[in-house]
From TrEMBL:
NCBIfam families in the cross-refs: PPR
Protein name per the record: Pentacotripeptide-repeat region of PRORP domain-containing protein
PROSITE patterns noted in UniProt: PPR
SUPFAM superfamilies referenced in this protein's UniProt entry, alphabetically: TPR-like
Keywords: Repeat
PANTHER family: PENTATRICOPEPTIDE REPEAT-CONTAINING PROTEIN, REPEAT-CONTAINING PROTEIN, PUTATIVE-RELATED
Entries under Pfam families matching the protein: PPR, PPR_2
PPR repeat ranges per the UniProt record: 29-59, 60-94, 122-156, 183-217, 279-313
Amino acid sequence: SCNAVMVALADSGNIAESREMFDKMAQRDVASWNSMVSAYAQSGDCLEASSFFSRMPVVNVVSWTALLSGLSRTGQLQEAKFLFDKMPERNIVSWNALITANAQAGDARAARALFDRIPARDSVSWNSIFPAYTRTGMLEEARRLFQSVPCPNSITWTSMLFGYAEAGDIDQARKIFLAMDRDAGSWNALIAAYGQGNDLESARLVFEKMAQWNIRSWTSMFLACSQMAHFEETRRIFDGMPERDLVSVELGNSFISMYAKCGSFENAKRHFDAMEERDSVSWTAMITADVQSGNRERALQLFVDMIHQGVDPHDVTFLGVLSACA
């Protein structure tokens, strides 16, 4: 059907072609409209998704949920809450989307209140609530919740592993790893845990024991090396990494931070200038590096350039700018 083709085009990133097909349709049903709302929402263009939603002759729970999911995914929590409260009907995806949004925002209380109100929970509901506790260090509450999960899956176990790792409890993270059915995600999580604990040797041993590496395995190992400013080892991992262009921004940001840790600030700037794509982390890392090196004028100019290029600064960026002005 035309709707199926539109969805396929949007899923492959061809939203313009999907939109063109929609515009040429002689007759559109609710599924056609939902396809466009979902396409724009998934791409992060919630303004256009909202525009389509507001023009729909008839909306259903899929329409509401598509827009809600987009708002939640892009961190527009207040807008997502407002939409959720207006929904005449909610499905499990709606509930899970708002729980995830609150968890990502670090609001464990709001996430748990929603979780407790769900008429019927699925595995996604359980996996959505865990980050609310693990990311905010509320590990005892996360542990109690974990014990009540009907059938924990690899995502649930890995969420607990990450929680202990981020809290610095590497021993408990390793116990979780040994107790679970391990997949590539859990192996990668343990590598990241050792990296956060500055235990490069253990991270390397886990990496070498893996039956098969994926791009996330390489990235976890790369980040472990770069966090400890092991330049030669970082370069070796980077050179051996397949498909490194798929995570170029993340890796580029790590190189900037690593150069800064080593005091090689001009190399950090050269790497920053060579990056084809930059995000707010890239700009913030370079601004912070210039502040550390005493090059405050350049740090302030970078901030101005960042704003002019439409990149939104965050709290750490402003801290760097305030330090440059001090």
